[in-house]
């Protein structure tokens, strides 16, 4: 069945391959060394989304852009393309955003390989077994452990602890203000920025999930389109679960709530009891947490443009905006003051618990700088060349495409009467006289 499926898929995409070669010839260095057939979409995807000649032409361009990328960055630079990734890639119309999307997938794969240590790194279980055989004391799963907690069992224990902590805080009236993530601008960003913030929301839940003082989190103004919906299915694991167990996944009752409603509705409090956190706000947080605050808002935006600024969102909703006192404790030279959502939440947790906020800020910034990957200038220059190649190829393809002939609509022929107005009037008068005489 697999062979028949591949054969039918190749037959379906045969016209695409002929057009792909012609499209690729417009680029600077065409090559057939890189095999991209393993990256092709499935037969079901092609049947569902590639129905018109324009769709087939677009798929041709995307495969060609993908091959150029693999030629420049290496055949192992991108992850395996699933239909979910193809859906996002296929529905991205701007060439610039498609380039950013491929580069985002490359960097994501590279960071994962650096974190995992690569395939050559020796497994920790093998090292532990060697130590145990040598007579050393090993404390690890399978070695001198009283309780074995792995996989779903470990997740179940943490889930119960997370829920019990939230309930105990509520029962003792010691709960933190509700934490709201404002996603009103998320659908307007590029795919790479959308993926970044969706993963930040997942990381926010992960850090809150393990915290002794968890927030009650709500994601407000969450109105995903088709493109964003595919991204959250891949990265928002607390809501959809991992792909391997998506069918049997049961969502935690205290997991972050996703709602299309606004901030005031999501918080359940009046605007006067809400704080909006923005690093572009003009006033710092008060030294002491205001006793009336029932909710605090973080914005899924980098505040690069006025239209997507968290300050403008706060002003529109009539909510007071504050900034974290980062400059009091950390010196920023070349690094940005924009922190991930999970780092901001840890600072706010210390603030509302009246702990040392300065120490929390220093730890958050230090952790952000430690996890930041250095930018490779060679790769950045190569990526800029790739974008230039794609722009030139798209421009040449548009020039070679024959213009669509425009057919002028036929003008209606002027209506001509067989008799003039005076003749028609005279005929009516004669008919009226004849009818009166006959009567």
Automatic annotation (TrEMBL):
<protein>
    <submittedName>
        <fullName>Protein C56G2.3</fullName>
    </submittedName>
</protein>
<feature type="domain" description="SAM-dependent MTase TRM10-type">
    <location>
        <begin position="162"/>
        <end position="372"/>
    </location>
</feature>
<keyword id="KW-0489">Methyltransferase</keyword>
<feature type="compositionally biased region" description="Basic and acidic residues">
    <location>
        <begin position="394"/>
        <end position="412"/>
    </location>
</feature>
<dbReference type="GO" id="GO:0008168">
    <property type="term" value="F:methyltransferase activity"/>
</dbReference>
<keyword id="KW-0808">Transferase</keyword>
<feature type="compositionally biased region" description="Basic and acidic residues">
    <location>
        <begin position="420"/>
        <end position="431"/>
    </location>
</feature>
<dbReference type="GO" id="GO:0070131">
    <property type="term" value="P:positive regulation of mitochondrial translation"/>
</dbReference>
<dbReference type="GO" id="GO:0005654">
    <property type="term" value="C:nucleoplasm"/>
</dbReference>
<dbReference type="GO" id="GO:0097745">
    <property type="term" value="P:mitochondrial tRNA 5'-end processing"/>
</dbReference>
<feature type="region of interest" description="Disordered">
    <location>
        <begin position="394"/>
        <end position="439"/>
    </location>
</feature>
<dbReference type="GO" id="GO:0005739">
    <property type="term" value="C:mitochondrion"/>
</dbReference>
<dbReference type="GO" id="GO:0000049">
    <property type="term" value="F:tRNA binding"/>
</dbReference>
<keyword id="KW-0949">S-adenosyl-L-methionine</keyword>
<dbReference type="InterPro" id="IPR028564">
    <property type="entry name" value="MT_TRM10-typ"/>
</dbReference>
<dbReference type="InterPro" id="IPR038459">
    <property type="entry name" value="MT_TRM10-typ_sf"/>
</dbReference>
<dbReference type="InterPro" id="IPR007356">
    <property type="entry name" value="tRNA_m1G_MeTrfase_euk"/>
</dbReference>
<dbReference type="GO" id="GO:0032259">
    <property type="term" value="P:methylation"/>
</dbReference>
